[in-house]
Amino acid sequence: MKKHVCTLCGYVYDPAEGDPDNNVKPGTAWEQVPADWVCPVCGAGKSDFEEE
Fold first, then answer.
1. Structural contact between residues 32 and 19, judged by C-beta atoms closer than 8 angstroms
2. Exposed end of the chain (fewer CB within 10 Å): N or C?
3. Secondary structure (H, E, C), the chain
């Protein structure tokens, strides 16, 4: 599974870790992250992320 990085703040979404604080379980692929999920650091939407 590929990591994705926020183009605004540099936060890296790692599927192996997920984002448990925002209800995204470890092992969740980027494609399965909810469309309304936002970057936990800066609040950017999924459209502001690109493949690392």
1. no
2. C
3. CCCEEECCCCCEECCCCCEHHHCECCCCCHHHCCCCCECCCCCCEHHHEEEC
The CA distance from 8 to 22, in Å, is 19
CA distance 33 to 14: 11
The pLDDT value recorded for residue 4 is 98
In angstroms, rounded to a whole number, what is the distance separating the alpha carbons of residues 6 and 35? Answer: 15
pLDDT at 31: 97
- Dist CA 18 CA 20 (whole Å): 6
| Cα(30)–Cα(3) distance, integer angstroms | 8
Contact 29, 19 (CB under 8 A): no
